[in-house]
Design a protein that fits this description.
This protein is α/β, with parallel strands linked by helices. Helices cover 40% and strands 16% of the residues. The structure holds 4'-deoxy-4'-aminopyridoxal-5'-phosphate (PMP).
Length: 407
């Protein structure tokens, strides 16, 4: 554990105030006190409608909101704050791109490539685009360890490909996808890439300029920040040519009965009252990442994942889904226990104070592809400890016996 940062648990009131082992951070992360304080500060000291009023309080709310955009641009190394659109979550960010970019620029002669490993959020919006435009929809299939072979990438990303939807890290297997390789192939045939960073941005350094993704989405609530805020990063030249998705207040320059002139970026895509307090909380989360260092957090998460993988994989009747290399699990261990339904696994663990997820993880086509109906999933973040992992593994080790199987 030399050089590995501490858990920083003292920063997380919920973790300090309860006796649970929280192993469900892929669903949502816990929040440090500084984020909770920032959200509260917004309502106690800044509350007014951002981007609306010309009085001091509203202008203060506007600058708080815009400072969050600056923090996010810095966090993912975007060229400009105009490339950062705030949405409600990753799902609404992908839908924005699908309804706006997809329905405007994809035609029936085009191909949309979606990986089979996508969360439904980065699959169904593109299926909708294919249905509405008549475009061909192709699924890029991963191997059992979650990787994509060069042959499969080449089979799918052909000259007719217009859009490739791919997650950077699978929320089921935790596999790290070779995003750079896929983006390169997509760009070689002129296709745009929607990268789903919901499970990667909170856990590893993301540089959108180095990555060269056309779109990247993520959810604030999975990266220590409040629920109700998502981010759509888009290359400026693409966002400029895209029509608005939602129309209404504050996304216009002028309206007459005959004509509408839309506001410039990013307001063109932020119709209606925004989540000012949530965005301000996200800014605090970014500052927290910057203070501790995401590389150090990632290093701790790799250590914890390796520790959990080794202990869990040593149990009889437990099958870990995905790669046999713990480094290719990015904090996520999905597993089945022979003869026990994942819902029972989760319920028994709950009785022992261990919180994990069970079900299809909003990725039913992936589970079907891997030949699994449903699974249990433990997911880690730097604030977890080896003690929590021990508690989890010990609980799992007794499940079959508690379900009536012999030792
Ligand atoms: N993509 C992935 C890979 C996810 O894990 C999730 C959340 N489970 C989403 C998208 C959707 O995120 P949200 O529910 O915050 O919109």
């Amino acid at each position: 554990m030399n050089n590995i940062i501490s858990s920083h648990r003292e920063d997380f009131p919920l973790l300090c105030g309860t006796d649970i082992a929280y192993l469900d951070s892929a669903a949502t992360s816990q929040k440090p006190q500084c984020v909770i304080n920032a959200e509260r500060e917004f309502y106690e000291q800044l509350n007014s409608n951002p981007l609306r009023g010309f009085y001091d309080l509203s202008m203060a709310a506007t600058s708080a909101y815009e400072s969050a955009r600056e923090a996010v641009a810095r966090f993912i190394n975007a060229k400009s704050t105009k490339e950062i659109i705030f949405t409600n979550n990753a799902t609404s960010a992908i839908n924005l791109a699908a309804y706006s970019y997809g329905l405007s620029f994809v035609t029936r002669c085009d191909r949309i490539v979606v990986s089979i490993a996508e969360h439904h959020s980065n699959m169904l919006p593109w299926r909708m685009v294919a249905e509405k435009t008549g475009a061909e929809l192709v699924y890029m299939r991963c191997e059992k360890d979650g990787s994509f072979s060069d042959e499969e990438i080449e089979r799918c990303i052909t000259r007719s490909a217009k859009l490739v939807a791919i997650g950077a890290v699978s929320n089921v297997t935790g596999a790290r996808v070779p995003l750079e390789r896929i983006i390169e192939s997509a760009h070689a045939v002129g296709a745009a890439v929607m990268a789903d960073g919901a499970q990667s941005v909170p856990h590893m350094k993301t540089d959108v300029q180095a990555l060269d993704a056309d779109f990247l989405v993520f959810s604030a609530h999975k990266m220590l920040a409040p629920m109700g805020v998502g981010v759509l990063y888009g290359k400026r030249e693409l966002l400029e040519k895209m029509p608005p998705f939602l129309t209404g207040g504050e996304m216009i320059d002028s309206v007459t009965t005959d004509e509408v002139v839309y506001a410039p970026l990013p307001q063109k895509f932020e119709a209606g009252t925004v989540n000012g307090a949530g965005a301000y909380g996200l800014k605090a989360a970014v500052e927290y990442y910057e203070k501790i260092g995401i590389d150090k957090m990632e290093q701790r998460e790799r250590y914890l994942t390796g520790y959990a993988y080794d202990r869990l994989s040593a149990l009889p009747h437990v099958n870990i889904i995905g790669s046999s290399d713990p480094d290719n699990h990015a904090g996520i261990l999905s597993f089945t226990v022979d003869g026990v339904h994942p819902h029972d696994v989760s319920e028994i663990l709950n009785g022992d104070g261990v919180c994990i997820r069970a079900g299809h993880h909003c990725a039913q086509p992936l589970l079907a592809h891997l030949g699994v109906y449903s699974s249990s999933r433990a997911s880690l973040m730097f604030y977890n400890t080896t003690d929590e992992i021990d508690r989890f593994v010990e609980s799992v080790s007794t499940i079959r016996e508690r379900m009536g199987y012999g030792k």
